[in-house]
């Protein structure tokens, strides 16, 4: 049973570049969540998606960040024109429905230099 | 706005020394209270979900309990491999997001 798969696990970007983080949910799960964990801070909700729909993006920064979960393929978290403050661990999670257990991936660690 | 406070921030125990971690929460309506364990450099690992006051769940040396405003994670006779950060997160009835506390960093010395 494959869990939530995230890649890349580690990503280094220069300031101003784009970062794309990918997430394949648990097989059979159609609900995907993205969370961010800044150094020495807790997990913060960013966005909640179902296939082809953004359900709740209230935790997403208004600029430079976007997320999608297409009908086919993984969910993508895209960060444009990265800045040093974007350096963090980005965790994807998935569930079968909004009432079910939410399982997390191992995270993608973004470092902006 | 949902609020979650975990205490203590850090806890150091000797192997076999039982203790409890606290999670105080404020939400408008609770669908469930989730507990996760997180090891350094890893993602949160699901432990329990509690749905109603008075509910208890157990897994090996861990037991989680829930009241209307708090949840406790009891650790009985811990082992060094129980060392990790323990996170609690309530989920509101109106949505799906989890609001995480800052966690309790548990260290169990042999």
Secondary-structure-derived class of chain A: mainly beta
How much β-strand is present in the residues of chain B? over 45%
Which segments of chain B are poorly predicted (pLDDT under 50) over 5 or more consecutive residues?
Answer: none
- Counting helices, strands and paired strands, the structural category of chain B is mainly beta
Main sheet summary of chain B: 5 strands, antiparallel
Average residue-wise pLDDT of chain A: 94
Describe this structure in a few short sentences:
The complex is a heterodimer of chains A (113) and B (110). By secondary structure, chain A is mostly beta strands.
What does this molecule look like?
- The complex is a heterodimer of chains A (113) and B (110).
- With 113 residues, chain A is mainly beta.
- Chain A has no helices and eleven strands.
- Chain A has strands at residues 5-7, 10-13, 19-24, 31-37, 43-50, 53-56, 65-68, 75-79, 88-95, 103-104, 108-112.
- In chain A, the strands form two sheets. In chain A, strands 2, 4, 5, 6, 9, 10 and 11 form a seven-stranded mixed β-sheet that branches.
- Chain A is globular, with a radius of gyration of 13 Å.
- With 110 residues, chain B is mostly beta strands.
- The N and C termini of chain B lie far apart (41 Å).
- In chain B, 36% of the residues are buried.
- At the A-B interface, strand 4, strand 5 and strand 10 of A face strand 4 and strand 5 of B.
């Amino acid at each position: 049973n494959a869990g939530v798969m995230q890649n890349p696990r580690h990503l280094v970007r220069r300031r101003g570049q784009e970062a794309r983080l990918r997430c394949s949910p648990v097989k059979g799960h159609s609900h995907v969540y993205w969370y961010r964990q800044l150094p020495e801070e807790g997990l913060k909700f960013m966005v909640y998606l179902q296939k082809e729909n953004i359900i709740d993006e209230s935790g997403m920064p208004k600029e430079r960040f976007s997320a999608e979960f297409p009908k086919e393929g993984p969910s993508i978290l895209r960060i444009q024109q990265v800045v040093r403050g974007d350096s963090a661990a980005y965790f994807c999670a998935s569930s079968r429905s909004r009432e079910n257990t939410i399982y997390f991936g191992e995270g993608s660690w973004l470092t902006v230099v | 706005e949902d609020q979650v406070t975990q205490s203590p921030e850090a806890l150091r125990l000797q192997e076999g020394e039982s203790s409890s971690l606290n999670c105080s929460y404020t939400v408008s309506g609770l669908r469930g209270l989730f507990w996760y364990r997180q090891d350094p450099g890893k993602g949160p690992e699901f432990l329990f979900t509690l749905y109603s006051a008075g509910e208890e769940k157990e897994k090996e040396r861990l037991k989680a309990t829930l009241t209307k405003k708090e949840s406790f994670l009891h650790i009985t006779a811990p082992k060094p491999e129980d060392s990790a950060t323990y996170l609690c997160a309530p989920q509101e009835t109106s949505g799906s997001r989890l609001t995480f506390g800052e966690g309790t960093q548990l260290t169990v010395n042999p």
